[in-house]
Amino acid sequence: MRSLIIGSSALLLLVHSSFIHSAPLEAVRAQEPWHISLKDVDIKTFIEEVSSLTGETFIVDPRVSGKVTVLSQDPLNKRELLKLFVSTLNAHGFTIIPQGAQSKIAPLNMAKVEASVTQTGEPEHFETRLIKVSQMPAEELIPVLRPLLPGHANISAEKTSNSVIVTDQAANIERIEHVIRSIEEKASSDVSVVSLKYASVTQLLETLNDLAEQISKKGGREMQITADTRSNRLLLSGAAQDKEKVLKVVRQLDIPASRSNGPLVVRLRHGDAKNIVSSIEKLADSLGINTDEGQKSFVTADTQLNAIIVMAPKHHHDSIQSLIEKLDVSRAQVMVEAAIVEVSGDISEALGVQWAIDGRGNGTAGAGGVNFSDTGLSVGTVLKAIDEKKVPTSLPNGAIIGVGNDNFGALVTALSSNSNTNLLSTPSLLTLDNQEAEILVGQNVPFQTGSYATSGSGVANPFQTIERKDVGVTLKVTPHINDGEALRMDIVQEISSIAPTAQNVAAVDLITNKRAIKSTVMAKNGEVIVLGGLIQDDITQSVSKVPLLGSIPFIGALFRSTKDVHIKRNLLVLIRPSIIRDEQTLADISEQKYQNIRVIGEQKEAKESALPGKREELFDKAPNKPAESKSEPAAKVFKAPDAKPLTQRSSTSKATAPVHMEVAEPNYVIQLMSGQQRSHLEKIIERNPNLPLLIEERFLDQQQPIYSLVLGYYKSQAQAQDQIAIIPAELKAKGAFIRPSR
């Protein structure tokens, strides 16, 4: 431990409590830290001893004089000793001024004149620093910062570089610079928003940025200008007077401009003009097209051209057209197929015996008997019919046996009914994504809703009101395609029919059966899902009898009537959606549906369908048939197609061997007819042994195979077309057409 004790008349150096004068100076410096105790010591002696301990070189100004007292209880290292040294000098009106390798000790009032210019230094040193100001004029900071500095410090503003010059101790300068940065940070958060009425922010931004750069170079606060293209607004950040300069220029440039390009007309390719216009109008405020004053903007739809007309400032055209292009996209379609299977059966059995004895013999009332209402006919009616010798006008279903005279009558009724119904409906419909579609297959049935009878002059004028309702199979679907192959469907499925017991009754008595499902389901593309079902099993047993007598075995049958009804219904609804994203998929599904209907339309006995082979021929007229030649059949010349040997041809006939042709790979065939009866096509091949005919087999939906009779092969459509004209009439009667080979 090194101790420095300085008395009033001498400076004492104690090392390990021993007074040493002969120790070298370097050895003394190395033995830090030091304890310092000074009392009324000459300041120059203190400077000399600190210089010896720290190795620093000091130039002492002649005006430096006086005595100092310093007491330190804690040990000090070199840096702490120098800091204590500077503080002691400052307390006596002196400071250290760095001058290269040495430092000058001078009065404080001389320091601001002789201090060196630097940006960083030791906290204890006196220096002059240049602080750059970017967010406001530097002279505005001087009145704020001057009270924060001691009297010996100096502060001023330099307009050319917009800087603040401070002369003081480095520690004080650091504090002043921190205050300046805090003021600038607060000022930079002051942002002004300017809305443009006529001009486009993108067009003005470059001009305004050049202006802001010139303002900053002239010593003003740094300007920042940002453009918000969405709302057509400018964001200004900078000094108030600088922002006012920019605003003045903006007002001069933001003036109405002529619409040199006129209205913007956009023809749509896929979407509906009215729907897209509705979407744009909802987004008008967000797009900024309704914020312009002086130029009324509007967007309208031309339904005849399916186009959108835009009347808006030119700078809005690009954003509106870009939005229209994003909305005008081709939507996927969905083919929804439903299978509705309903199986129902009603079984009913009834047996009853009625009898009566008429004591008066007039056939109108009985003195005793058994009568049951559930048989549909009373014994009194039978007695009256016997008495009047005529058959009753209305009789129930089943076997009826009635015997008697004017005093006695007996009636036996028996009925057993069994009805079964199997219903299979497969409705399908095609619709766009997010578009509702509906299909109805049924009848429009009249229902009586009321009747009125008015009279005038004693003449009645009755009439009825009728309301017609649809009865049949209804499928209503709204598909929503999600990402990938999944889709959500809002489905309403309804099956209604007229009850069999009321089909031959007047409209007022019609009874309808109704099965309805309303649901929202998720399904994958091509997935078959069960939408809903119903299993109903109703059993009704009724017995009417005379108490006690009706319970007697065997004889009790004369005093009772029984009726059993068993109703059973099974209903199941299945749905299969198919997403169609391109034209080829749509064409394939259309072809599949058409071929299915052709197969259904085929008659038995191997007769072909009356529908043409290609669905396009339903609308396009078949080419005119060439006039039939009256010459002998031998005069016709059939050119063999360019094909390989027809090894696929049926070999059931006894005709000559197939023709062999050595040519290139086949490309086209002439399809003559198709159906599910292969034997019929084989007979045609037998009748035409000289023609290169063959049978192709294919499947649709894993159903029964479809057989096609084709002629070929040919390398081009033109070559195949030449051969159609000379094909026998029997073969092209069903509509021959050319297609690529499979």
How many alpha or pi helices?
A: 16
In terms of DSSP E residues, the strand content is: 35-45%
- Poorly predicted ranges (pLDDT <50, ≥5 residues)? 1-30, 363-368, 623-666
Q: For the report, how would you describe the main beta sheet?
A: 7 strands, antiparallel
Structural class, from helix and strand content?
alpha+beta
| Terminal residue distance | 108 Å
Average pLDDT score: 71
Oligomeric state, counting identical vs distinct chains: single chain
Task: Describe this structure as you would to a colleague.
The protein is of the alpha+beta class. The protein folds into six domains: 78 residues, Ribosomal Protein S8, Chain: A, domain 1; 60 residues, Ribosomal Protein S8, Chain: A, domain 1; 63 residues, Ribosomal Protein S8, Chain: A, domain 1 (2-Layer Sandwich); 66 residues, 2-Layer Sandwich (Ribosomal Protein S8, Chain: A, domain 1); 245 residues, no CATH class; 73 residues, Sporulation related repeat (Alpha-Beta Plaits, 2-Layer Sandwich). Helix content is 23%, strand content 37%. The protein is built from 16 helices and 33 strands. The strands form nine sheets. Strands 19, 20, 21, 22, 23, 28 and 29 form a seven-stranded antiparallel β-sheet that branches. Strands 3-2-1-4 form a four-stranded mixed β-sheet, with no helix packed on it. Strands 24-25-26-27 form a four-stranded antiparallel β-sheet, with no helix packed on it. A hairpin with a 4-residue loop joins β14 and β15. α7 runs antiparallel to α8. The N terminus is likely disordered. Belongs to the bacterial secretin family. GSP D subfamily. It is found in: Cell outer membrane. Its main location: membrane.
